[in-house]
Design a protein that fits this description.
heterodimer; A: mainly alpha; two-stranded antiparallel ribbon; 7 helices; 47% helix; B: 8-stranded antiparallel beta sheet
Chain lengths: 161, 361
């Protein structure tokens, strides 16, 4: 059965919804279900990080702010808890408090003690990266119909160009 | 896209050459560094277009990176299933990047740069997974090479970096150094003397962990173990690598000790068992993959104990990789059913052993 939303992937989530007193069946693939905020347990990738995930879950049950989201990529703390994967570099800032605790549990430390990296700035490379990032955010804003944000991003892009 | 493995520098298999220290026991040493590019969502969150831009940026940069200038670039997502499996059998791409478990195939814009002894996976769990392989026990050599490659790549692309957390990765278990140092090690002596449980347990106390031949999620087959560091944050790359080297050195000693005990206390039983393994491989007409792996483990041990001579470690390493399904299909020039693969495997192993081994009864 094909997903009702994307019409591409196989539907794995079969949902019975009651909308305006009528019963409707919705069939969704995992990705579209996730986009609608429906949590699935079907094809959760199995990986050997059992202890780590358990630590994340335990921690989350103790902490509020389940719905906290990274403003850059939109990953929520809840999604991170379910997958064990962060969405982007900015998630480290968005979930800093929870992460610091988690890193301490997993690694016994929170401070990097290895090779240092000098982020490159001011040069063409950096600007190109910035531009591409802004274009992604613009596309995302358009998709989400956040037109004010989109307009601001477009101006920023023009400025950089 | 059809992959021609002969176009990969050294087939991406320089690490099979059996040239390093303790090559009979330690097949290979590997350093893997997880890196992400600044300004993009991590691959699992990124859209297809974003992943493609990452790949294009890295490809463009690779032309200016000495360590990657001559690398072959393989678009894994454009390869057929057999070629993806072949790349995985050579340890060049992970199960995830090869899309072996996914019903919808490999992740979009997934690719790998292959040189003789290094590789860079693109758009796996992290944008970049830099890998350096060395034959035998040579973590130090692999680390130096990885550091050089990392510096070269990091000066051509902007890494996602945090002054406190270090290199930022998709999974917090890799945050900090992003480094996994590992050895692929053959421990039949410890398995046969039933010492292995204690040894593996000991690893965990030392901040190390173990997996099967094909890394994360793979089972232990043929007494092959991958031992690696577990933590990546709070200690430097050299310190983490030194710790692994110290512990692995100790594991090698214990394996050698176990082999001496086996020969002393159960000499003829062991000898018989290993010769039977050898005999089966020399004459069997059909060989399932798991059985081949177990028997090859026995023959490797026999060679290590000098029971069989004339059989080089390089040949044993080669048998380990080239007797696997996708390699047999590649050699046959077509897809094989399981039954056909078992026939082809038996034929291949017989030919290689007959050509090389001379007996010392």
């Amino acid at each position: 059965m094909v997903c009702d939303q994307c019409k591409e992937r196989d539907a794995v989530v079969h949902l019975t919804q009651i909308v305006a007193a009528a019963v409707a069946q919705v069939h969704l693939c995992e990705r579209c279900a996730a986009e609608r905020g429906i949590e699935t347990t079907v094809a959760e990738p199995k990986h050997p990080l059992g202890d780590f995930l358990q630590a994340v879950q335990q921690q989350a049950s103790q902490l509020p702010g389940d719905l906290a989201r990274c403003a850059y990529c939109g990953t929520s703390l809840r999604e991170f808890r379910a997958s064990g994967r962060l969405g982007c570099a900015h998630c480290y800032g968005a979930f800093e408090q929870s992460l610091r605790e988690l890193l301490r549990r997993v690694h016994g430390a929170t401070r990097h003690a290895g090779w240092r990296y000098e982020p490159q700035d001011g040069d063409v490379l950096e600007r190109r990266v910035q531009l591409e990032a802004l274009r992604d955010r613009l596309q995302r804003a358009i998709d989400e119909e956040a037109f004010e944000t989109a307009a601001a991003l477009r101006d920023q892009i023009r400025g950089l160009e | 896209m059809t992959l021609d493995p002969s176009l990969l520098p050294d087939g991406g298999l320089q690490w099979l050459s059996a040239s390093g220290d303790h090559a009979g026991i330690v097949i290979s040493s590997r350093i893997r560094l997880a890196r992400n590019l600044s300004g993009y969502a991590f691959p699992t969150r990124a859209r297809e277009g974003e992943r493609l831009r990452v790949l294009h940026q890295v490809r463009e940069a690779a032309a200016r990176i000495p360590g990657l200038r001559d690398a072959a670039l393989v678009r894994v997502d454009e390869c057929n299933a057999q070629d993806r499996l072949l790349l995985h059998e050579r340890h060049l791409v992970s199960r995830e990047l090869a899309g072996l478990d996914a019903t919808q195939g490999p992740p979009g814009a997934g690719a790998v740069f292959v040189t003789g002894d290094a590789g860079v996976m693109v758009n796996e769990e992290d944008h970049l997974r830099l890998q350096v392989f060395r034959s035998g026990f040579d973590i130090g050599g692999a680390l130096r090479e990885a550091e050089r490659l990392d510096r070269e790549v990091g000066s051509e692309v902007a890494y996602a970096w945090h002054p406190e957390f270090g290199f930022l990765t998709s999974c917090p278990t890799n945050t900090g150094t992003g480094m996994r140092a590992s050895v692929l090690i053959h421990l039949p002596g410890l398995v046969l003397t039933q010492e292995i449980g204690k040894v593996l347990q000991g690893l965990q106390h030392m901040g190390l962990t173990y997996r099967g031949l094909y890394g994360e999620g793979s089972e232990v087959l043929g007494n092959y173990f991958q031992i690696s560091n577990q933590t990546t944050l709070g200690r430097g790359e050299d310190e983490l690598a030194d710790q692994l080297v110290r512990v692995v050195r100790r594991v090698i000693e214990r394996e050698e000790e176990a082999r001496r005990v086996l020969l002393r206390d159960a000499g003829y039983i062991i000898e018989d068992k290993l010769w039977r393994a050898y005999g089966t491989l020399r004459h069997a007409r059909t060989l399932p993959a798991e059985e081949a792996m177990t028997l090859l483990s026995g023959v490797r041990l026999a060679a290590g104990l000098n029971l069989v001579s004339g059989l080089s470690v390089y040949t044993l390493n080669k048998l380990l990789i080239f007797s696997q399904a996708a390699h047999l299909a590649q050699a046959a020039g077509r897809a094989l059913t399981d039954g056909e693969a078992n026939l082809a495997r038996a034929r291949y192993v017989r030919q290689v052993l007959a050509a090389e081994a001379r007996l010392t009864d």
